[in-house]
């Protein structure tokens, strides 16, 4: 990972997603010390809302790509895109790949369900008639099951929001930098019980890009390179019945819960991460105890709580008390979402989590730097809603 | 007064399921080979991959897996607040269904519930609501 680039984050960029993509790609290449003429691979993920690689490439006059990926999908595929790019480089198909996500998620295409057409999918017909149409509702449904089974409390969610806001206060890029208290959290308005406003991520206009190249080539570039130790992706939560009943606290298709019933019931308090994590750690040759800093996909507060458990940082069901203990704050045993995350920095659909992990491993995260960070975990949406998740383990060279 | 959200758009797999719900039946598919019950409708059994199956009418009983209370507007209808429950069927626990909640109180985790078929006035459509089994 040789470069990262950002646009400003805002509620109204005033420009197209194509412009955002180009700006972030150019910034990432400049950060790497590479030229657009060096790029031979381009990748993104999107849900029909943003500029495709086939448009961004020509718009920047990039050489004809030897590899590209235009992945349909939301946050669950964000890290898979980068994993695939790494495979392309490792296989020798591409030499230098830029991965970007450009999004006008507040001014044009609001993922949260306000002023947006219904999502397309076979499950929607069974949900929409009851007014169940948006991610805050879907994650609230799983959060409630976790609360019922493990005694997770609103105050646990609130503590997480407070910690991430404190991190964002140290991040000049973050949109929301004014510290909040637990009382502020508890006083914020209901969205979909058990979620309040401050359980929900921001909707952000902005873009973020990453430059990948071979480790040998990266060694001669501007920054201390960050190596991709392991990438894993796999299935997730689904509405389809499986072979047995489900525990709505766990997930199952390739480790994830599916909309389709499977052979067995599922535990909806477990996310796809529970299946993916052992493969990921095995591939990297590390365990959760070796991770110095973690950027965990935080579309909602609960998404982080369940991943803390399913990536093995604490026992199943202990995610809430683990956050309450301060373990995930800066200075804690495993600082999480040091940039403030989607809750406070901005929502760039997973790519800004990877960029923050890179920053931490380079040691240039300034006021929010985790001292001596050598190994980082960065994760995608943990496989609720869409049956997939993905994650990366990165290491300082 | 009952207000529903965006109407369902059936696909080629689900059309017959919706027809049966219209007739106040709550069916799932049963694999003719291994007996595994499945929902939503699709061609192959996820257990034995058999392609032969028949409709199996359930007794409409289930258990509450979870629920939410929508407190802001998410679609033109319904008007908030409203409660949506996620239910697994008693006779087919792997099968999960959503629906409106009909009780003067919030659901309780794991509580037994029973389906109620609610005909949408003026439309050729029946939707699912759940209420305490008592």
Automatic annotation (TrEMBL), chain B:
Residue ranges constituting the ChsH2 rubredoxin-like zinc ribbon domain according to the UniProt record: 24-54
PANTHER family, per the entry: BLR3430 PROTEIN
Highest taxon of source: Bacteria
A Pfam family: zf-ChsH2
The protein's name in its UniProt record: DNA-binding protein
Residues of the signal peptide: none
Domain ChsH2 C-terminal OB-fold: 55-117
Coiled-coil annotated spans: none
